[in-house]
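Project channel, design review

CF: Before we commit to the Dioscorea cayennensis subsp. rotundata constructs, I'd like one complete example in the thread so the newer folks can see what an input/output pair looks like. Taking 60S ribosomal protein L18a-like protein.
RD: sounds good, go ahead.
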Amino acid sequence: MAHGKSVDEESAGKYVPLRDEDDPRLEMFNRPLPCFGCGIGWFSLLLGFLCPLTWYYAAILYFCKYYNKDPRERGGLAASAIAALLCTVAIIIAVIIIYA
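CF: and here is what came back for 60S ribosomal protein L18a-like protein:
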């Protein structure tokens, strides 16, 4: 304790990890999500507008239940799976129109 500050004053404003003694699994969510903090699913959704194959990659992760490792990924992976479905429908309609 330098300069007469208490322990609470020294730790004020600093990152303190959450601890839950009843459920230690909650500590795994203290780390940031991959892909710049937005998660693989949301990053794939945004990147998919440039390269739609990333939507299919995220859809595969969704159907393989990758979100069981980190439930925060579920929304983004589901959104990418929906985008992959819409892209597939659009491609099928375009192929039918072109070759019909």
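RD: helpful, thanks. The chain is about 50% helix and 0% strand.
CF: The mean pLDDT is 80.
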